[in-house]
Amino acid sequence: MSIVMGIVGVLFVMFLAWIASTNRKLAFKKWKNILILVALQLFFAFLFLNTTWGQTVIGWLADAFDTLLGFAREGGLFVFGDLMSDNGGEATDVFLFNVLVPIIFISAIIGILSYTRILPFIIKGLGILLTRITGLPYIESYNGAASMMLGQSEVFVSLKNQLPRMTTARLYTLAAQAMSSISLSIVGAFFTMLEPQFVLIAIVLNLFGIYVIVHIINPYEELIVDDGAEISTKPEAGKSFFQVLGDYIIDGGKIVLIVGAMLIGFIALINLLNELFLLIPGSSLTFQDILGYIFMPIAFLIGIPWNEAQIAGSLMATKLITNEFVAIIEFQPIAEEVSRKTQAMLSVFMISFANFGSIGIIAGSVKGLHNESGDKVARFGLKLVYGATLVSLLTATIVGFFF
């Protein structure tokens, strides 16, 4: 049954992409690339979920991040003292300390890897490999790899010389890649909130899934010569090691403040809306209940059992209109109340920046580098969220095959 619903789910997601396609005839011509990319998603999902080797790799990576988070905790202990120690009682459960503080340390590690050229080397290598798989130019392949590791703002810095020459279609692909990924700096935070295997699987499947959706919703064939010569892989050029390290640590602190502020605002607003809906005479449904019923058919069609589709739909909608952190916080208390399949599918669905708030972040980031390109991104903002959400749906559907 999982396989049948999985096939239905994949076809359903592709249909949703096709109805919004800019060139449906050309999308049909991309079928070979699409099949290869879906096959790769299935392969990696099977590898990580159903093989000893895959589980071992995930275990190693999880242990590595646990070690890093331990070091991050030491830094937090120095600043916050007993609030983060075992002597602090219930304060050790504070979201800021357990989830947000490690972001600063992981950002520092990324700074070191960037300065030593290790991270740019990995990104460039993955870009070359993806070019051979995806059927898209090197710029799009490079950006896909970079989006998997950098933030949705930082990823465009290395392409600042290329942005003025990007057509609207190519800009859509670049922006969709940024929205369909997560930043390496917050992977550790997700590890503390969800099962590490689902976080890692989502990162890999989203990498291939965005190309599937782009081939359908935004197909193009242009005579493009991309040798990558103008890609700036040294944004820190001219800075000393400690300047770069300080910049990345400060950036990590900014992320903590932004995430914390958005969580306070969004969670408060959702609770306000829930209470307002309950004030309607004769109503027993909250705002999130209604969202759940709206998204319920979508959750069911991608393979989530019908009796859990309303809960899943509510969380999917929450992630779309707020952000991934809010949705995960809402998910944690009820995770054990749903089946293992639904847990897995919802977990991977939440691992991306696909939400309405990301439109402004991405458009603003591009506009800061090239004004005209930023305006283009803003104009297709809603379609951008639509495409990135389809990537998350496709990833969840693929994972559902194996439960």
TrEMBL record:
All copies of domain Nucleoside transporter/FeoB GTPase Gate, residue ranges: 96-195
- Specify one Pfam family: Nucleos_tra2_N
Membrane topology reported for the UniProt record: Multi-pass membrane protein
- Which keywords belong to this entry? Cell membrane, Membrane, Transmembrane, Transmembrane helix
**GO CC term, one of those recorded:** plasma membrane
Residue stretches making up the Concentrative nucleoside transporter N-terminal domain: 8-83
* Compartments (UniProt record): Cell membrane
Q: Which PANTHER family match?
A: NUCLEOSIDE PERMEASE NUPC (PTHR10590:SF13), SODIUM/NUCLEOSIDE COTRANSPORTER (PTHR10590)
Q: According to its UniProt record, which protein family does this protein belong to?
A: Belongs to the concentrative nucleoside transporter (CNT) (TC 2.A.41) family.
This chain's protein is named Nucleoside transport protein
Say which species the protein is native to: Lacicoccus alkaliphilus DSM 16010
